[in-house]
TrEMBL record:
<dbReference type="Pfam" id="PF01551">
    <property type="entry name" value="Peptidase_M23"/>
</dbReference>
<feature type="domain" description="M23ase beta-sheet core">
    <location>
        <begin position="170"/>
        <end position="245"/>
    </location>
</feature>
<feature type="transmembrane region" description="Helical">
    <location>
        <begin position="34"/>
        <end position="51"/>
    </location>
</feature>
<keyword id="KW-0812">Transmembrane</keyword>
<dbReference type="InterPro" id="IPR016047">
    <property type="entry name" value="M23ase_b-sheet_dom"/>
</dbReference>
<dbReference type="InterPro" id="IPR011055">
    <property type="entry name" value="Dup_hybrid_motif"/>
</dbReference>
<dbReference type="InterPro" id="IPR050570">
    <property type="entry name" value="Cell_wall_metabolism_enzyme"/>
</dbReference>
<keyword id="KW-0472">Membrane</keyword>
<dbReference type="GO" id="GO:0016787">
    <property type="term" value="F:hydrolase activity"/>
</dbReference>
<protein>
    <submittedName>
        <fullName>M23 family metallopeptidase</fullName>
        <ecNumber>3.4.-.-</ecNumber>
    </submittedName>
</protein>
<keyword id="KW-0378">Hydrolase</keyword>
<keyword id="KW-1133">Transmembrane helix</keyword>
Length: 277
């Protein structure tokens, strides 16, 4: 087991110990001030910061890589969220190979995608979103090295109470449970030359490929869903330098003919010649 994986395991165990101690302290007098319970969080966050520190050159500068050009994983009209074109790391962390990750949501026409609401409705079914069930395409020729689609698609977290629940309760539980519960149903393609593509939050039962299978660019490999740590049906896509998000580092990408759309930017992705439904 690599040092990074051990560090992330230690981080999860310390988080679990913290919640265990807090719960025990509610029922039993542990004989020390309550705020001491939070001491467990210090080594936990030291571990996660150390494990996900960005690689540096011998001169001490952050390591830079040239973007890898691939096809877009979707077709049609979409808009970008949490884009590396707007900030890096795009999701606020280098963890799980997310440095250059991007989220995209379907925008087939104005007003079609339900917007955020302060209080009501608290949540919506995944079928209310145009991204749900949209085909996802292989961005290059490659080999399937990871594939999972048994986790359920949950309701959206598209209200203020739902978002707070996702951020402060559900996300923490998923963090303790491990990367599978964060990315939900997912697919990892080995594109060669040390580059791997991760598709996260896939629709349950939608995988069209299996581990070990060869795929061609433009081939339908799965469908967009709302599994894992997700607020609504969307596509989370990233390139990384290994098949395991726990130990992998993010790799910058560029979609052929589109580049990298910035936050809020609407883009049109054409269907490739090899696309099949």
């Amino acid at each position: 087991m690599s040092a990074r994986k051990l560090a992330m395991l230690g981080y999860r165990l310390l988080l679990l110990a913290f919640f265990g101690v807090v719960i025990a302290d509610v029922w039993v007098d542990l004989g020390y001030p309550h705020w001491w319970n939070f001491a467990l969080l210090v080594p936990a966050f030291v571990l996660v910061l150390a494990a996900n520190r960005r690689p540096r050159t011998p001169q001490g500068r952050p390591e830079q890589r040239e973007p890898v050009e691939v096809e877009a994983p979707v077709t049609g009209r979409w808009s970008a969220l949490n884009s590396p074109a707007s900030r890096t790391p795009s999701h606020g962390t280098h963890a799980y190979g997310q440095t250059y990750a991007i989220d995209v949501v379907a925008e087939p026409e104005p007003g079609r995608r339900p917007g955020f609401r302060a209080l009501w409705p608290l949540a919506r079914r995944s079928t209310a979103y145009p991204a749900y069930g949209a085909p996802l395409l292989a961005v290059a020729d490659g080999t399937v090295v990871r594939a999972e689609d048994r986790q359920r698609d949950h309701l959206s977290r598209s209200s203020l109470p739902g978002l707070l629940y996702l951020m402060f309760a559900e996300a923490t539980v998923r963090e303790i449970a491990g990367v599978r519960r964060i990315v939900g149903n997912h697919l990892v393609l080995d594109l060669g030359d040390g580059t791997h593509a991760l598709y996260a939050h896939l629709k349950r039962g939608s995988l069209a490929v299996a581990e070990g299978e060869k795929v061609r660019a433009g081939q339908v490999v799965a469908r967009c869903g709302n599994s894992g740590n997700s607020s609504e049906p969307h596509v989370h896509f990233q390139l990384m330098d290994g098949p395991d998000p726990v130990t992998a580092r993010g790799i910058p990408f560029r979609w052929r003919g589109i580049s990298v759309p910035a936050n809020g930017e609407v883009f049109e992705a054409p269907a490739p010649a090899s696309h099949s439904a």
